[in-house]
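Q: What structure does this chain adopt?
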Amino acid sequence: MSEAAPNTPSPYIDTTRPHPARMYDWFLGGKDNYPVDEEMGRKVLAIEPNVPVLARMNREFMRRATRWLASQGIRQFLDIGTGIPTEPNLHQVAQGVARDARVVYCDNDPIVLAHAEALLRSTPEGAVDYVQADVRDSEAIVKRASKSLDFSKPVALSLIALLHFVGDRNADGGAGAHEIVSGLVDRLAPGSYLVLSHVTADFQPEKAEQVGSLYRSGTASLHPRPRAEFEKFFTGLEFVGPGIVSEGEWHPELGEPVPGEEDVIKAGYSAVARKP
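A:
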């Protein structure tokens, strides 16, 4: 059963301000966005015209990583920061390899909740569920995801294009991005995997600052991190080859190339690592 039950009141969606998830949907050519999102998206494209290609590369990384994990015997997946559904979704990829794969999606965005039903079409042998929760509340996520996943066995934890919207530890003592990830990984069994993709300013610092300023003027802060800070997310874990690379460089043989990706300058890092 989904956390987004039929009797759940319709979530309030603010259509007066741009939203990162809806902008991402617009970059991908989706229709679950509003004029305010397109307006901000076009401003981003004026700075970096290749953002739609980079967004597609990010989605393809998720699909290739999921395909690889399922082929390695992983049958449980926890995807936090799910975003608006884009087919094939993670569960479709995982269950395409292993029909008994179990997937839990998690997001705190009301627009994702509104589309959660589209995520919940599982194979009869497997399971798919949706949890409405914030990445900062790992205890609630694990508790609710435990209805579908067995955390005493390996789980693939995916945080795709999410952590650059999460800051470092703040003045009131709230956990920063690295503490959040380590807290989640601590709850995983040995043999589990962490899958991350993240924006960086390492390759185009001026453009990254300009795009970050646009996002800050909307509804989200953007925190591009250098390679060293990205690597810290994997402390204590064992990288799967080829290690830290751009999205398009992670096992390209496992998927289809994204048109135009050979012409773009890198804008992010991605990696998969195993918990020993």
